[in-house]
Design a protein that fits this description.
The chain is an alpha+beta fold. The protein has one domain: q2cbj1_9rhob like domain (Jelly Rolls, Sandwich), CATH 2.60.120. It is built from seven helices and 14 strands. It has a six-stranded antiparallel sheet. It is globular and about 45 Å long. The mean pLDDT is 93. The chain binds 2-oxoglutaric acid. The site of 2-oxoglutaric acid has 10 residues, from strand 5, strand 11 and strand 12.
Length: 275
Amino acid sequence: MSKRLTDPQKTFYGTNGYILGLPPVFTPQQVKGLNDGLDEVMKLLRPDEDSKEIREWHESSRFLYDICTNEDILDYVEDILGPDFYLWGSNFFIKPPRSNSTVGWHQDTYYWPLEPKISATVWLALDDVDEQNAAMRVIPGSHKAGLLKHSRSSATDSVLTLECEQGQFREDAAVSFNLKAGQISIHDDKLVHGSPANLSDRRRAGLTIRYSSTIVKCDLSVNPYFKTYLCRGTDEYKHNPVGTVPTQNYARLERKHISVEEAGVSAERKLGLVK
Ligand SMILES: O=C(O)CCC(=O)C(=O)O
């Protein structure tokens, strides 16, 4: 039984790997509260850090934990991942006005040591986002193409160092994830996506929230910090460590998280991505 999505919307997600055009989850008043909270969290950064470091802080900040476990958001995710799933990741993608920073085309699964590949990302807009201020772009249907070849790219301003090699998909088919502040999109972990530089005078801020089916197991030798928070249903598999719910409203994590990108070629080898 669906909670929020109609059957045609679910079919659209299955075919295209994403969903857009959902009613706002947060009102303008609540969005103001989210941005005030973001300001508080940003104050916890050290001078040499930027918003990219605010990663998995739902484990330490109740403010972020509450967003990630918002019941409306979870209803949508349940319609996509099924009745049993957990939260494990969150991070901000913030592009200030006139920022050159891009996010190269990639598939999230390439970075994540998770099997099987049954995960979804909610992108929550904290600003109105569109083509002018560097909304995320996705290649519809690319989640069905299998794992594409990624390689190290140093010749870009991408915040990622591993990007899809060119020629594997049609960039002109890209769809822009235009959202009003307080709206969410959802995309499949295998979908090719990225975002351009923000050449506008408007900030572009979003919070990504990552969820996986309880059947998904993390390779802890690649990411030893992986923690799960059961959101709906039961976890019959008990594959992964369980996190504790934070008690402080705003608090930071001190650790550096490890992804395939950071763990480097040895992790890629371990996951069978390179020979
Ligand atoms: O917000 C962006 O530009 C990219 C987000 C992203 O790569 C993701 O959600 O996995």
